[in-house]
Design brief:
about 950 residues, mainly beta, Jelly Rolls, twelve-stranded mixed sheet, disordered N terminus
Length: about 950
């Protein structure tokens, strides 16, 4: 009897004689851990009793989403064996109970209890293969059934035969549609076909150029009117109950405009009374001198004529105010009865901007009559030739008036968001569609391509970067937006040590997804972004990994350089994740460690959800394994429900933000340790790496923040300058100890030449030509430091100077950024080196428009990094000047023993006891980090030069 084995197995479970599959995913109402249903003759039939029964060892295999090593969602698959001893699962067996009711694409659905009293559907599919099988004895007869999700069928669907707007107008037809000429005919056509089987073609007069204008993204090429016109007769229709009508078409007027009074379009009606309106003309306005009886230059008017083409009297405004030049327009003439009068409205919609404009005129003593014909760019009694230079098409006549936006995005798909386009496409195909995230928060698409539905959906997915999926709530599709992947909380957290995994999650270090140089092309415009820092940069090994290039051709609504660069940079961001990936993470819902809450979470997981594994083994990196789910494979048997997730690192989508959020943490261009540190050091020195300039924040509101050094995560609680000194103390015969605790060493002259008081440190230059130096010991060679300098006298006889010095070995070997107060009272910045007592000027800068006044303070900054020496000066009361005024390169001095300040008066100086005074000394780089160690369980010593980066930097959203 079918299902006997499973029934016995269910009894055993209830008697607790065997491991309970209820631990896997509960027990369905049929007593099984799973329910298999098939749509037979319009009714869902439970066929679970015919599954999982062959030798009590059968299984159901289900796969969905992106496969390992894949790049896009594939059709879900399902395979199972069905007991076929009575032939019911042989579609062509006339003796079988389901003969004629099953076959290709028979709907199949499989569910398990969701833990909340309902069902968790694992797949909604369509049977793609029935393979009857049997053993030689004929006692074991079964059918291998394969089913696929809806994507399989869509992949084989044809591309649309017609343009987007053609399909929007005809499928289903617009309300009251009695005539439609798409005007998308080939260039050599001799007439313009009607899209309605009851319609007649438009005749061609003159030489309009067909298939010449491609500016409407929703349309195939349309005619450009160059000394010719199109006229189409409207098949007679019953208008006895019609009290309104409308005529619409697409129009593009070139930037140069048209001639004044050119007729753009003419609607001819069949009047019932002689003298009533017979023609409604749309005319272009370009009056001489810019002033006319109708509208201003670039506008259009609605003008009624009788059968003799005499203008009829009317009331109201007849001209639009919108300048129609260089716009893509949908134009509408809307006519309706208004009591005993006729209301005629001319309305336009700018399909790119959504701007509308309209004007209405009233005609007395007339009624709505049947539309007889429509002409584009016709010649009239007033105009011997129609409009020249315009493009037009998609002419419709309807017996009702509707909103001019009734076609929605189908009239202009360019600019439509990817999510909304997917929603519209699925609705047009009659496919259920759901989503995760905000469909409006997706990228703007370009024109809708002429591809089959699946290709169009994949085009949107590629542009936005989200995940297309097959719905589990029915036969349908869904989309998870890229933005919905950002900054998720984990949906499921598993503990490695608790045995919650059915197999070891094996990390993979490979180059499968590496892409460090990406070119994005849109509409012929291209931009490239390249990763030039980090371990996965494009430099050849061992500095980097070499170039891993990728080119993407995207359909975007914008091709400006910024948009393309952002798209390329985002893809490089995804392709330079410097961590192992865990392609597969597996759980078994039958395992005792899987709690009911975890079971519900597992069954509810969607593509793109975040999963974490805590407490990984010691031989793996100590950080929590953090992944996004890209796909799933499931195996369901009597006694287990195994789920294997296909994964990729979650880090590219974590810490996504914008610059103005309080929690944003943007990494520097590169930083490194200044010196070796022990495994227990809680204060470290950090400086920019070679070629980098950006310093770390010192704002207390930004702390704490986590950094990563050599695999160890440290929590930074404060960052300060290496040295600060505001000289608020009093000292004589020296400068004492700075605010940061470093003691100054005085050198040169006598002890009485050095003092601190009144908020400054002073050097008394009692003897001309003899330098005074206050220096701090160091083993660091690169510094970025400031000081404020002034002189208490105007220089006489020779210069007075104060300076910053570094890489100081002794009085005869150092680099200096010197501020010179000259005898002409100019202020000069000089960068020089002193080697073996010989000074060589490397660069100079004279402050423009400056006359020194004794006591005026100037601030200088000196940055020495490798062979690069840069300096600047500005008035201390002003903000820092952005540019470096002196930038030079010199590699003579590389070591360092001291850093500090130096003062000297030039030989021949005649000032009496002048003083150089210093204030606000700062060494801003290296910076001092105060921190706690071993945030991620790692504590070890690190060497000078080790890379220092944010542990979880914020990445800017696309």
């Amino acid at each position: 009897m079918p299902g006997l084995v499973s029934q016995i197995a269910g009894l055993r479970r209830r008697l607790a004689l065997v491991p309970a599959p209820a631990r896997a995913s509960g027990e369905a109402s049929n007593g099984e851990p799973v329910q298999v249903e098939m749509l037979v003759s319009g009714t869902w039939v439970d066929v679970t009793g015919y599954t999982l029964v062959r030798d009590d060892s059968g299984s159901i295999q289900i796969m969905s989403g992106i496969r390992d090593e894949g790049s896009q969602t594939e059709a879900g698959t399902c395979t199972l064996e069905l007991d076929n001893r009575d032939g019911r699962f042989s579609p062509r067996n006339p003796s079988g109970p389901y003969y004629g009711a099953i076959g290709r694409n028979t709907p199949i659905r499989i569910s398990v209890p969701d833990g909340n009293g309902g069902k968790s559907y694992r797949i909604w599919g369509e049977a793609s293969e029935w393979a009857p099988n049997w053993d030689t004895s004929g006692s074991d007869v079964w059918t291998d059934l394969s089913a696929n999700g809806i994507l399989r069928r869509l992949a084989q669907g044809p591309a649309p035969e017609r343009s987007v707007i053609y399909n929007a107008i005809t499928d289903p037809p617009l309300t009251g549609l009695v005539a439609y000429w798409p005007c998308e005919d080939a260039a050599d056509s001799r007439s313009v076909a009607s899209a309605l089987t009851s319609g007649s073609p438009m005749t061609i007069s003159g030489t309009p150029t067909l298939a010449a204008y491609s500016g409407f993204g929703a349309s195939d090429p349309l005619p450009v009117f160059t000394g010719g016109s199109l006229t189409g007769g409207v098949t007679r229709y019953d208008n006895s109950a019609v009290s309104q009508y409308q005529v619409r078409f697409l129009l593009s007027v070139p930037a140069a405009g048209l001639a004044d009074s050119d007729t753009i379009a003419r609607v001819r009606v069949s009047p019932t009374v002689v003298g009533e309106v017979e023609y409604l003309d749309i005319e272009y306005n370009d009056p001489p001198g810019g002033v006319g009886s109708f509208g201003g230059p670039g506008t259009i008017s609605i003008v009624p004529y009788n059968s003799e083409e005499s203008m009829l009297g009317y009331s109201g405004e007849e001209s639009l105010t919108l300048d129609v030049r260089s716009r893509l327009l949908r134009v509408s003439i809307e006519v309706s009865n208004s009591g005993t009068a006729l209301s005629v409205t001319l309305r336009v919609l700018d399909i790119n901007t959504g701007i509308t404009d309209s004007t209405t005129i009233g005609l007395s003593g007339t009624n709505v009559t049947r539309v007889a014909s429509v002409a584009l760019a016709p010649s009239t009694l007033n105009q011997s030739a129609g409009a020249t230079g315009m493009a037009a098409g998609h002419v419709t006549v309807q017996t009702t008036v509707t909103s001019i936006t009734d076609l929605g995005a189908a009239v202009q798909p360019s600019g439509e968001t990817a999510g909304r386009r997917m929603q519209r496409l699925c609705a047009g195909a009659g496919i259920a569609f759901d989503w995760v995230g905000d469909l409006d928060d997706t990228v703007a698409m370009g024109a809708q391509s002429r591809q089959n539905l699946l290709a169009q959906l994949q085009e949107c997915t590629l542009a936005d970067g989200g995940l297309l999926y097959e719905s589990r709530s029915g036969v349908g599709l869904g989309y998870r937006t890229r933005a919905s992947l950002y900054n998720q909380d984990p949906v499921l957290t598993l503990d490695y040590t608790a045995g919650q995994l059915v197999q070891i999650p094996v990390p993979v270090e490979d180059d499968r997804y590496v892409q460090n140089k990406v070119t994005v092309t849109v509409g012929g415009a291209s931009a490239t972004y390249e990763e030039t820092s980090g371990t996965l940069r494009t430099e050849l090994p061992p500095a980097g990994v070499g170039e891993y290039g990728q080119e993407y051709t995207l359909n975007l609504g914008s091709s400006d350089a910024g948009t393309l660069k952002d798209q390329a940079a985002w893809r490089v961001h995804l392709g330079t994740v410097d961590e192992a990936r865990f392609p597969q993470i597996s759980v078994n819902l039958a395992h005792p460690s899987i709690t009911p809450a975890m079971r519900r979470a597992i069954l509810a997981m969607r593509l793109g959800d975040r999963i974490q594994i805590t407490n990984p083994p010691a031989w793996l990196p100590p950080d929590t394994i953090d992944q996004l789910i890209l796909g799933m494979s499931e195996t369901i048997t009597h006694f287990e429900h195994k789920v294997t997730f296909t994964c990729a690192p979650a880090s590219p989508y974590s810490s996504i933000g914008v610059l103005d959020t309080a929690w944003s943490r943007i990494d520097t261009d590169g930083s490194e340790l200044v010196a070796n540190i022990s495994s227990s050091a809680t204060s470290i020195g950090v400086q920019p790496s070679a070629g980098a300039d950006v310093l770390w924040t010192k704002d207390t509101a930004d702390f704490p923040l986590d950094i990563r050094v050599g695999g160890e995560v440290m929590r930074v609680t404060a960052i300060s300058d290496l040295v600060t000194d505001t000289f608020t103390r009093t000292a004589s015969s020296g400068w004492g100890t700075s605010d940061s605790g470093f003691t100054w060493t005085a050198s040169g002259g006598s002890a009485t030449d050095y003092s601190v008081g009144s908020g400054v440190g002073a050097h008394l230059l009692a003897t001309a030509g003899t330098s005074r130096r206050c220096i701090l010991p160091t083993v660091i060679s690169d510094f970025d430091f400031y000081v404020t300098i002034t002189a208490d006298q105007l220089a006489t006889g020779a210069i007075l100077t104060g300076s910053l010095i570094t890489r100081y070995a002794d009085a005869d070997n150092f680099y200096s950024a010197q501020l010179q107060f000259t005898t002409s009272n100019t202020v000069l910045l000089v960068v020089f080196k002193r080697v073996n007592a010989v000074e060589t000027t490397l660069g100079t800068y004279t402050m423009p428009g400056t006359t020194f006044v004794a006591g005026t303070q100037y601030r200088i900054r000196f940055k020495v990094q490798g062979p690069s020496l840069r300096a600047k000066v500005w008035l201390a009361s002003d903000v820092e000047t952005p540019e470096w005024q002196v930038s030079v390169t010199d590699g003579t001095l590389t070591g360092s023993q001291w850093v500090g300040v130096r003062s000297i008066s030039g030989a021949g100086n005649t000032n009496v006891n002048p003083s150089i005074k210093y204030d606000d000394f700062q060494i801003v780089s290296p910076q001092t980090f105060t921190l706690t160690r071993s945030v991620n369980g790692v504590a070890k010593a690190h060497s000078a030069g080790a890379d220092v980066r944010l542990a979880t930097p914020t990445y800017l959203a696309l």
